[in-house]
Amino acid sequence: MRIRLNQILPKPLTNDYVEGSSIWGQELIFEKGNFIEIKAQSGQGKSTLLHIIYGLRFDFEGTCEIDGKSTATFSKEKWREVWSDQLSLVFQDLRLFMDLTARQNLELLPAFHKPNPDLMEMCEQINIAHLLDQPVGTLSLGQRQRFALVRSLLKPFDWLLLDEPFSHLDKENAERTAKLIESIVRSRNAGIIYTSLMTHRYLACNQSMDL
Amino acid sequence: MKSSRAKLLRLCLRTESPAKALFLASLGCLLGSFLLILSLQCYFDSNRLKGDNQKGGSFVTLNKKVKGGLLLNLSSTNKAFSKEEIDQIQKISGVQDLGEFSRNHFPVTVHIWPAGRIGLGAAARADLFFESVPNRFLDQIPESWAWEQNHSYVPIMVPKFYLDLWNFGLAPSRDEYPALSLEAATSMPIEIFMGQNRSKRMIGRFVAFSKRINSVLVPEKFLKWANQDFATEENQDYFFVWNEDEIDGQPISFSDLKKFPKEKLNRTFFSSLYEPSNMKKFNELKTEQLRDSEVGRLIVRLKDTKAEQFFKKITEMGYETNREMPQNGWIHRAAIFTAWIGGGLGGFLSLLSMGTFTSSFRLMIVQSAESTKKLIHLGFSKSQISKVFFVKFAQLFLSIWTLSLVFGYITKVILEKNFLTGLGMETGLSWQTYLIAIIYATAFTSINYWVIDRAVSDFSEKSLD
Fold it and tell me: Using one digit for the tens of pLDDT, what is the confidence trace for A187-197?
């Protein structure tokens, strides 16, 4: 799966942000299998970029293409296929179901990729296995963030989009989680686009860009 | 995983149902469906009864007016229909079919044993008559109606109001006679004594209660057999005997005429009391006597639309009619009117409940908007989400619908047992009612499915904005 960003300019966006950006107003092509890091400070459009790629925002100039087709032309059914099978996004606000247990949240997916390692192993690797049967509403932000990451890894995908995936994790848990993500994504020959706050880099990347 | 996913979807789309609105919608739906089902059944029953009883027309019995005093009534000739008269009646516009009543020509006495066994308790004793009509004119033909000479009992059909007379007239005034249910009445043994000096004893039973024919009916085959074996000549006519050009003495009965020497019979002329000057030979009298003694009453099936013309013509011809169920048409129209009113009210309530259901479910969908959005972004289809709401609706609606069918069935059975006895109605609801109830349920659920699907679509589209 190939993603092409052609002269993307979100509306409204001041010139201050556009000038010097290596993404806004540029032509970029992301080939499957690459790990892309997008760095920026708060409020510079990291989430906006991921939402544009994920098809949640269309208030921009230029075109976003997936496999050569402008996403603006995608039907609802096409988007459902993309969301179900091709893209997996971890939102900044995580979007878990607070009344359900962590396990129920992980089981609530329209389609599953045969997990390797399995769900329990994944949770054990990042120290959340003992929390599986607790309602998500009772968990800390860091614990929720790790469950949201596991959920995204359980889906089938060609590209994993991560919006500040380690923002609520301590260094040790962030490193464990990054290791898990990297191993799974590489085993599937998929790609990652992740955003960060220009601090510590937990995931290795082929390409790093400042927004 | 699939069932667990469906359960999880239900869990995360769980919202607080608008309980009051859903309760009102359920109540309205229950009442509306119940009224619709009952009205439909009323409509079908009414049409079926009309069809069964009238087969497209009204039934009318005809007889000649009884005139004059004692002397004239010594004869029965004027009360009988001649072949020409019957032909004339048959030609009247609107007459679809015509049947002749046959009657017994022998004395009949019956002993009815209401206690259920001969010799047990008191018997109601009465001198009676029997008549028969062709089976096609009967409003019901029970299996036991067929009679053969070797049969152990004689099937008898009496008007339903005879039973009412017994229960509300005779039984309350006489301690020895109990009130009788329909079942008890049909199991009473009836001793039948026939012929001169009660020479023949048979056992009879009431097998049906007619709403159409006001007579004591027995099968044609039985009456024919009994007339052959036990007929007397008591109910016969009287004739003047002519000697040359003068009437010779008092009128003589037909049976006494037959005792004349053959030679005298052949050379003598006779005339009836009504037409003394119309002299006839004995052979002509014999033919008329046989015919007239058989046909005293007629039963006519009449086209409803031609009824008024028919009655006008019959009155002109000087005959009497006995419309045994003159209110048939009126009852049918009243039943249809009631069915329409009930159906209309039921339909109105169903529409109201449908509106309340749809608005309640739309509200639930609005309350679940955030969860719906999350699920859509995870890749769930809108049909997977609308299915959750639809299943919830369908479970509720199908329970109500089933309950209304059960209530309808029970109500119909109660009505049959208490108010509509003896009409020969089928037990419970008819297949047409079930069929329409299924169509109604399908339409109701389809409309609600469409509304739910649209509402979820609206939100799934918003999640793409």
Answer: 999 999 999 88
